[in-house]
Input
Amino acid sequence: MRLNRLRTVALALIFAAFFIMYLGVFSAAILPFALVIGTIMILVSVFIYFRVGAMSMKIPTLECPNCHRMTKVMGMEDGCMYCNTPIRIEMDDEENLFAVQNGEVPVKKTARR
Output
């Protein structure tokens, strides 16, 4: 769920950058500043997308206890990417990860980390 929010922020930065650069077209005095600010915003957005992609490859995939779809959970507590159900990650004695919803019994163990 947090990864989707980061992607949304990066997309909003790109649209805001285009809007700022477009405003620079109407005034020659602010054009250089608008282009520099817009370019910096786009570079920050590219950096966010790069970091999210790198983080996404290392995040464990678990089955959601509510919708039973495979979802990536970032941190010890997060939400399902599909149904936004709050999910908490716990480990058993063999250090296998499993998802717990509202303190209930775990649904499914996964071997993938």
